[in-house]
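WARN retry 2 of 3 for item q-0093 after timeout on previous attempt; input resubmitted unchanged.
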Amino acid sequence: MQDERKKIFDAAVEEFTEHGIKATSMKAISERAGLDEGAARALFVDKERLFRELLKEYSEPLVSASGFVAQDIDDPRQFLRKSLKLYDRWLLENPRLVQLIAWGIAEGVQFFGSIYSHVLYPSEFLEKLQKFIWDGQIRIKDIYTVFILIESMMVFSHLMKSNIKSLYPEKSEDDIFENRFAMMMDLLSNGLFSDEDKG
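OK item q-0093 returned
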């Protein structure tokens, strides 16, 4: 059964990233996996459940690691740096998942929002972030705004990966993304404007 599950997951990733989530059918996934559609439905029932299980499967290492960070780090800057470093590494190691996120956002898949919050960003992360806001340690008081700010910088840079590499052909991919991450953390920690521009 585990072998069938992996075949279906692998086929689903290929189908979803090539054709989009809405256009992909359980039949197409099953055929690509070399399995009968009935066998796939016996494991996942429908495409929506398969998609959720797929995200959970890929996200499990991130969820576990983020949970430990939320428990162990009480400084907001260190918490954000460590959490986002884990997320950034996960995105780098799972480029097909970045494509899935993009498809989910572009197609407005109804269930994607809740899965995004509770799987890609585990609840421990959001709860800790909310605590920092309530305690006055983060200036922006709306967690949704903080979430969108972080997410736009994190995911968009991975979606633009090939373009970023073409801008800095003399640098390695690791150097480019390390530098981008450092600048992003500086922006989150210190704001956009230099002291002399504040009025």
